[in-house]
Amino acid sequence: MIKYFSILALVLAFNAGNALAFWCFQCTTFNSTNCLQPDVNILVTECPPSPNVSEVTCFTRIVGQDVERGCATELTPTERDNCNVVNNCQLCANENTTACNSNLFPIGRLHCHQCTGTTNSTCSEEIDGEPSPCLRFVADDQCVVQVRDDTVVRGCLSENEACRNNRDCHVCSGNGCNFRHFEYNAAGNVIVQIPLLIGAILLSAFLSK
């Protein structure tokens, strides 16, 4: 009997030793902006083998407004069972030694033009390039253009909450909608002020009679 258990222990140890380890990106955008679309090997970690995780190897999920990536072995059985797109979570399986959880997540997250410069810089001109994904994930996020003094800032509302109720900002909805020359926004403010200016002129003329 003792010999039987000894052989069984050796078999189990052999199988455990031959369980293949795998690689996943392990990071969060809370600490690293590179985690949004990781392509840096320093963010890759070797995950410990687990007999309970065979179909999937890595995960990507939203925690708060941040993207978190890691090894499926880090998740509890309940977390793995509930990991689906509806819950802003995604599991994947490595087909080779390449980490499978590097994709932009979730699919369809907002892209905005993002830059900072003076009113004489290229950031103030109409943007022709491709917009970039917003770092924070907010379901109803929007793009913004902020013009204050001689500074122009383009980006995502989720990263510039001061623009939510600020006349220095133009807020718009849709990927890359904040591409226009900043003077379009300035012109909008001028148009709003024209009726007040005309009223002041008429009132001044009336009082001078």
From TrEMBL:
Residues 1-21 form the signal peptide. Keywords: Membrane, Signal, Transmembrane, Transmembrane helix. InterPro entries: DUF753 (IPR008472). It holds the Pfam family DUF753. The chain crosses the membrane at residues 186-207. Residues 23-101, 111-178 form the DUF753 domain. This is DUF753 domain-containing protein.
